């Protein structure tokens, strides 16, 4: 099928390149000219595992192209996936101006009728507005538009895997023909009938993903409901961690046992610095606002948000308690990305931590395998080091802020010998407290027997 993708952020890039990978002809566009130039030079504007290989293969075989000419891109597809950003406004509502702008562009540039698919995370009833907008902006022309919601469940760091091997594909439609067209697009994934680039020679035998057909409103709600539920689980684990600290229990032991009940599930129960990134925080906020507008006070989510906000303050308290005065202290930060396997630092807990540490006069040095360039643009006064050992050298404390697996495998005796004061504050409960104590570190973490 011929598909256009509008918006080349991580969702657009993963969606476009994976659709090309499973056999479609895809043209992507973005209003950021420099992004398109980077992509046309064969480079990626973001770090996402496996994405470079998929993009370059799809371009080589001529199934994937990037253009800054929106009208060319829109003309190229029978189906248009909208993947533009919906950042939070001051009020907490999602800013839908980019979607509105794309609707106008599609309506005025299209020479033929098309299916327009919302991939961007949007509040419920956006699809209805989109339909109205497309009809109004194309008034007087012969083209018409169908609209569908097809929320993405792509986690940064594993987005390619999530696209090609999803847990479920949700489509919100109001016409059978739209459902059929979307089923056709996803057929290779639904039947696992493509040469999977992740699992050569063969994918592991797992159940095929269900194709869930709903109304457009339900599909939009499913996305916010999913992300908000994940946020609830994380905040619950963090509240448990605080309680464990007060009562002398171990949150890792508690959440492990809680998670073994399939009704609870083992995932998203990791206590620590809390949830960040461009999705969970803004989606929870937008969901709260959406409920408010519908006349409901979603206090449950407000509490989850509040618990999350307090994580940094609690970590700062731990640092103050351990180091007494922060001013003039040399603090090493390991991890800047909001989670491992990405270079994304948007709403990243470590960045808020750095802001507060700098505010108190600490001297901050930092290392992250992927996210240093993006952090440098925000905090130029931090000293960025080439490896974790240089960050630890001479430091009064080492703060683990992102659980990159390589941090767990560091040469900790070497680090111990090189620090001014061998102290670790583990914001992600990455290390084993007993092992760290055995190495004579002063070790602090969240909710475990230290
Ligand atoms: C999230 C959802 O997981 C995806 O399903 C969704 O498609 C995506 O948002 C989106 O809306 O586009 P993502 O933002 O990539 O994906 O990150 P998550 O893996 O959900 O992690 C979010 C934050 O929660 C990270 O800061 C992570 O460190 C934190 N987290 C996660 C915890 O603190 N504890 C946990 O147990 C799990």
Care to describe what's here?
It is a single chain. By secondary structure, this protein is an alpha/beta fold. The protein has helices at residues 10-21, 33-40, 51-60, 70-76, 97-109, 126-137, 159-164, 176-190, 216-247, 251-259, 280-293, 299-323, 349-359, 372-376, 388-392, 405-408, 412-418, 433-438; strands at residues 2-6, 25-29, 64-67, 79-82, 114-118, 145-149, 169-172, 211-214, 330-334, 363-367, 383-384, 397-400, 423-426, 442-444. The protein has a six-stranded parallel sheet, with helices on both faces. A six-stranded parallel sheet has the order 11-10-9-12-13-14. Helix 5 (97-109) runs parallel beside helix 6 and helix 9 packs parallel to helix 12. The longest helix has 32 residues, at 216-247. It starts with a strand and ends in a 6-residue tail after the last strand. The model has no long low-confidence stretch (mean pLDDT 96). The structure holds uridine-5'-diphosphate-glucuronic acid (UGA). Residues 121, 152-156, 227, 230, 234, 268-270, 272, 274-277, 279-280, 338-339 line the site of uridine-5'-diphosphate-glucuronic acid. Uridine-5'-diphosphate-glucuronic acid binds at residues 121, 152-156, 227, 230, 234, 268-270, 272, 274-277, 279-280, 338-339.
Write a concise synopsis of the structure shown.
By secondary structure, this protein is of the alpha/beta class. It contains 18 helices and 14 strands.
């Amino acid at each position: 099928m011929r598909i256009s993708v509008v918006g080349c952020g991580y969702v657009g890039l993963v969606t476009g390149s994976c659709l090309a990978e499973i056999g479609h002809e895809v043209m992507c566009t973005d209003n950021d000219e420099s992004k398109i130039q980077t992509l046309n030079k064969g480079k990626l504007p973001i770090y996402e595992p496996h994405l470079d290989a998929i993009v370059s293969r799809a371009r080589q075989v001529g199934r994937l192209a990037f253009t800054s000419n929106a009208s060319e891109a829109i003309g190229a597809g029978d189906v248009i996936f909208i993947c533009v950003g919906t950042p939070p406004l001051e009020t907490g509502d999602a800013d839908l101006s980019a979607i509105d702008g794309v609707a106008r562009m599609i309506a005025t540039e299209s020479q033929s009728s098309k299916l327009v698919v919302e991939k961007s995370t949007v509040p419920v009833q956006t699809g209805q507005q989109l339909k109205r907008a497309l009809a109004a902006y194309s008034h007087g022309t012969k083209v018409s538009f169908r609209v569908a919601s097809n929320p993405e469940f792509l986690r940064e760091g594993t987005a390619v895997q999530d696209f090609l091997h999803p847990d479920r594909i949700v489509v919100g439609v109001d016409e059978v023909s739209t459902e059929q067209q979307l089923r056709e697009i996803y057929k290779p994934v639904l039947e696992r009938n493509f040469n999977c680039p992740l699992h050569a020679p063969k994918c592991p035998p797992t159940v095929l993903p269900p194709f869930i057909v709903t109304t457009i409103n339900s599909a939009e709600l499913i996305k916010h409901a999913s992300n908000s539920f994940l946020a609830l689980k994380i905040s619950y684990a963090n509240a448990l961690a605080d309680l464990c600290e007060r009562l002398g229990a171990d949150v890792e032991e508690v959440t492990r046992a809680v998670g073994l009940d399939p009704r609870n599930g083992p995932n998203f129960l990791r206590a620590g610095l809390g949830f960040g990134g461009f999705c969970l925080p803004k989606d929870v906020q937008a969901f709260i606002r959406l409920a408010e507008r519908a006349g409901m006070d979603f206090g449950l989510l407000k509490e989850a948000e509040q618990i999350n906000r307090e994580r940094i303050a609690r970590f700062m308290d731990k640092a103050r308690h351990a180091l007494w005065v922060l001013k003039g202290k040399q603090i090493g930060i390991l991890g800047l990305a909001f989670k491992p396997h990405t270079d994304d630092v948007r709403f990243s807990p470590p960045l808020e931590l750095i802001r507060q540490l700098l505010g108190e006069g600490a001297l901050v040095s930092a290392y992250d395998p992927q996210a240093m360039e993006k952090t440098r643009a925000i905090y130029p006064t931090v000293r960025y080091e080439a490896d974790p050992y240089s960050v630890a050298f001479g430091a009064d404390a080492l703060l683990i802020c992102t659980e990159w697996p390589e941090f767990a495998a560091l040469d900790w005796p070497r680090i111990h010998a090189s620090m001014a004061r061998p102290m670790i504050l583990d914001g992600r409960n990455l290390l084993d407290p007993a092992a760290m104590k055995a190495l004579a570190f002063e070790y602090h973490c969240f909710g475990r027997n230290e």
